[in-house]
């Protein structure tokens, strides 16, 4: 489903005369199968977010090839990436990244607007999705009028509305209390079992890491451990 072949990445910082190269990821080879829940762990600065940004095309690797569902995505243009991303990936973040001036309904509907789905169909799908995450009574609430757990469910509904086969999550439980965390993990498990959605989750949280099928430990930009838990 996702394959990285000898991927390395470095950032260039500073202007031409003072340019400095910051190597971040080194020779990463990795294979993630359909239906896996994989946790990426490692210290701050070890390259976890960079890895996720490479897989989702927000960054291009300095070296190596990345394949998503057998497509050599490293060769996609910016425009092709935008379509490809919308079809293949959903995103969940620690800070939810909802648009504060838009209701729960409008936040969840947004990817369908970007996809050009017509209004009556959008309405139907958005209401169904809000129901699936148990928020049908909160459609007209703004993010500031929802609890952290509810906001995270809106962000999951927004991620799922275009039926992506892969969900990428960056510290999804980071802002949740233990009850909401437990609920989120159960929901992830359900989506994984019932719909075969593949999850790639960056986490500092041992509970999330032990919940995953597999943990990839990054240290100084290298994979040092691949544990099957
Ligand atoms: N755009 C950038 N330009 C220059 N350096 C960057 C850039 N983005 C990240 N880095 C550097 O790359 C390294 C890895 O960063 P990254 O965000 O991938 O780590 P991380 O493991 O996700 O950390 P955290 O757990 O703190 O989020 C860090 O040293 C960081 O300073």
TrEMBL record:
UniProt cross-references to Pfam families, sorted A to Z: ABC_tran
Source organism superkingdom: Bacteria
Gene Ontology molecular function, alphabetical: ATP binding
Annotated InterPro entries: AAA+_ATPase, ABC_transporter-like_ATP-bd, ABC_transporter-like_CS, ABC_transpr_LolD-like, MacB-like_ATP-bd, P-loop_NTPase
Domain (ABC transporter) ranges: 2-229
UniProt-listed CDD domains: ABC_MJ0796_LolCDE_FtsE
Organism: Paenibacillus eucommiae
Name this protein carries in UniProt: Acetoin utilization transport system ATP-binding protein
UniProt entry keywords in alphabetical sequence: ATP-binding, Nucleotide-binding, Transport
């Amino acid at each position: 489903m996702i394959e990285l072949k000898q991927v390395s990445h470095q950032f260039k910082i500073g202007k031409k005369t003072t340019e400095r190269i910051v190597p971040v990821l080194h020779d990463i080879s990795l294979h993630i199968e359909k239906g896996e829940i994989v946790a990426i762990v490692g210290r701050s600065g070890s390259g976890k977010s960079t890895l996720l940004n490479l897989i989702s095309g927000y960054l291009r690797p300095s070296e190596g090839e990345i394949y998503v569902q057998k497509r050599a995505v490293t060769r996609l243009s910016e425009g092709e990436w935008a379509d490809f991303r919308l079809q293949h990936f959903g995103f969940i973040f620690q800070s939810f990244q909802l648009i504060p001036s838009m209701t729960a309904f409008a936040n969840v509907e947004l990817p369908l607007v970007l996809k050009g789905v017509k209004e009556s169909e959008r309405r139907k799908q958005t209401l169904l999705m809000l129901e699936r995450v148990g928020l049908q009574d909160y459609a007209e609430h703004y993010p500031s009028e929802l609890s952290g757990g509810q906001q995270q469910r809106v962000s999951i509904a927004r991620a799922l509305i275009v039926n992506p086969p892969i969900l990428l999550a960056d510290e999804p439980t980071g802002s949740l209390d233990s009850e909401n965390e437990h609920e989120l993990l159960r929901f992830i498990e359900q989506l994984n079992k019932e719909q075969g959605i593949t999850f790639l989750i960056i986490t500092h949280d041992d509970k999330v890491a032990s919940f995953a099928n597999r943990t990839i430990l990054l240290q100084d930009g290298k994979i040092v451990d691949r544990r099957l838990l």
